[in-house]
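Q: Here's a chain of 134 amino acids. Please give me its 3D structure as tokens.
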Amino acid sequence: ALAFVGQKVAVDGQTAQLKNSSATWSFQVPKPISATVTIKSATGQTVYSGSFSMDTGLQTFSWDGRDNTGTLWPDGKYTISVSGKDASGQTVSVPTEVEGMVDSVDLTQTPPVLSMGGQDYTIDKIKRVVRPSS
């Protein structure tokens, strides 16, 4: 578990930490869709919404902290939701994942608990380790 400290990982979730004007989520798209991405503040206020075409497979969405008017929002926790429709107009479920740096590990718990962006996740929630882009 200690090997995860300092590593960027992905876990199931919708809430990510906006830090230095950057928050990142990923999602597994089961088939090509037209999607609406909505980001809300911790108080539930919609701060960003956009429409995108998405292909099948792993997609990453990075948000620069700006709302639809260009106003920069403060660092904090933000929640994403993705609603999609396929070519025939049927609703497609798109589960979301959160990516972040593992800050610490609590080894006193079973299984060990990883802290990432102020939120705790058990080690079995890790979907993958993300190699930093160079």
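Q: Can you summarize the key feature?
A: The chain has a mean pLDDT of 91.
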